[in-house]
Amino acid sequence: MNDFIEIHENALAREDCAAIVARFEAEGGGTPGRVGSGYFPELKDSSDITLEGRPQWEDVQNLLLDAALRATKAYLRRYPYAALAPLMLQTGDPPRRLHAHDLETMDDATLTRLVQTVLRPGSINLQRYTADKGGYPYWHCELFPRDEQCETLHRHLLWTLYLNDDFEEGETEFLYQNRKVTPRTGSLLVAPAAFTHTHRGNMPRGGAKYIATSWILFQRAAQMFPSG
């Protein structure tokens, strides 16, 4: 049975990954990582750098966003109802409903426009998990209602790009799928954001673990449905 967890190998070149890790350390290694409700190192023990609003990281942000866009388009081609089921998309004049085959066979430029119309990228977080100490042991999903703007409830997919693999363990573990994803440098994981894909980040052994992580969110209603 399909578990809706997709791994895209070589989403980013190894040399690009190594350069991002080096810049992370050159900037001072980040600040203590937070979860949705605050700083709780017993739930998540990491050092983080959020790229949003940092001009010096714009090139890295664009590199990662390009990788995430490619992965999102591939995900929608494989699982077209990730877009069709919640949005009932239509096209043309007179309009007709899109079907799964439309997304599966859509040319790349048209699919890119569709993705950018109905979805948007989240802020990207670089994270370091210290060897034999760091991790995200709390079983969690990516939807979180303690947000007055309901921003976190717009999260549809999660993604994680592994920036190194010179350590043992440190897998991304999914609870209900009974699956552990082993980090591989440059590979990008995509999965649904909801409770069905509750997961945790296991402690790396013998070396620090570096990742870039974010979400693919629905556009807000005012953007998609301006007429109400």
From TrEMBL:
Alphabetically ordered keywords of this record: Oxidoreductase
Keyword Oxidoreductase appears in the UniProt entry: yes
EC category name: oxidoreductase
Signal sequence range: none
GO molecular function list: oxidoreductase activity
EC number: 1.14.11.-
Domain annotation Prolyl 4-hydroxylase alpha subunit Fe(2+) 2OG dioxygenase: ranges: 125-216
Keyword Oxidoreductase annotated: yes
A Pfam match: 2OG-FeII_Oxy_3
Protein name: 2OG-Fe(II) oxygenase
Organism: Denitratimonas tolerans
